[in-house]
Give the backbone structure.
Amino acid sequence: MKPPVLRCRHVTKRYGKFTALEDLSLEVYEGEIFALLGPNGAGKSTLIHCITGLAKQTKGSIEVLGFDTRRDFRTTRRLVGLVPQEINYDPFFTPLESLMIQMGLMGVEPSRERAEGLLKTFALDEKRDAYTRTLSGGMKRRLLVAKSLVHDPRLLFLDEPTAGVDVELRQELWQEVEQLRAAGTTIVLTTHYIEEAEQLADRVGILHKGELLLVESRESLLERHGGRALEDIYLELIRKADGRHVA
Amino acid sequence: MSTIVLKTLFIKEIRRFSKVWLQTVLSPLVTTSLYFLVFGVALGSRLREISGVPYIQFVVPGLVMMTMIRDSFLNTSSSLFQSKINGTITDILVAPIGAFEMLLAYVGAAMIRAIIVGTLVYLVALTFTWFPLHHIGWTVFFTIFVTATLAMLGIVAALWAERFDHLAIFPNFVLLPLAFLGGVFYSIDLLPEPWNTISRFNPGGRAGFVLGASRSHQRVAAQWLQLAKLVIMGGQA
């Protein structure tokens, strides 16, 4: 097996008395698509925030390619890309300017050529000089993906990138994800559309109330459950865990 | 320290206020020009000298410093708060940049805006009255000291604020009253006790004193320098 790109060891995250993540350990390997599933409030985004620098874990350690995300944050942040759950855009800048700025922020010398290439890849070249607020929702979402790739990250996080997105754009996004994987990028995605995880993911993790209930390859998971749909397996696990928590 | 990241964030902040120059540069210039017209030309011609200088000259340092105080605060507070609200703060928080570099970029850009607008206001003042700078060294020191301090306060306000009206509390209910009551438009020597002594510890209006030409200004400057020394010595201890 290839070496882990991401290694989380006994990660706990507390907000006051609320525990968002509890003693979570996880490894993600180079070149795979890892789908992190779980209901709302399970801790998926919290985990991504701890890895990318948006939050600090209360306990435990996180390593990206062997570098600690707290001690060596300048290195790990250059290795990681994030497509956040919520669409965000800076109303002051055009898509071209946004990409150039993002390059600089990620420690890469801003290159107009590279920015224009990304705009073309994500079919935004006609809007390169438009105010970002005038872009459609789908275009803004594509711009977010383009921004996350300006520094060629080795590990890319897609935090529910298809939430509230129409079918056509969803298909386009997943095609782009496949292309990124083919180019060697390791991808961790969270999604509510379990059939998408079933189609795309090499391995699946199910998170519930801050605890990792299961990590398994998609193939073995489906095989172990007699070919049942991933959605059924997911629901069964969540309900069982809820019963355990209630007890 | 990553110079590319620091440079990018600094330039981004400069470009942000440059893009809306009507609001960020021209608007304070017009407002301050109106102050000069009303208080300096219209009313000032009917007032006697204050602290040994004509009234229109007396208001120049306070108005310049008041503009710089407001602009340095507004630049960091509005930029950071808008990033918080529209979610683009994520782009900065995931960047390979430390807290100190972030502070340098935000504060540096705010100081640039405040100094540009302050200089323009001073040039506008020169069209109304001749006003030479007597203490270049102190002028530079206090310009840097005041704009950097207010820019940092703007960061604190933006981090604390959860709504737009929270952000308006500091400039409207703290900065503006302190500036108006601190002797921008009148000499605090004219105030009876205890207001005279109290006003000497009001940093809002007094920050403009070193730009001033009057003896009164220099006296208060000396008191503030003593206070600054005590603060620095206390910090070192």
Remarks:
- The mean pLDDT of chain B is 82.
- Chain B has one domain: 3-236.
- The first helix of chain B runs from residue 3 to 19.
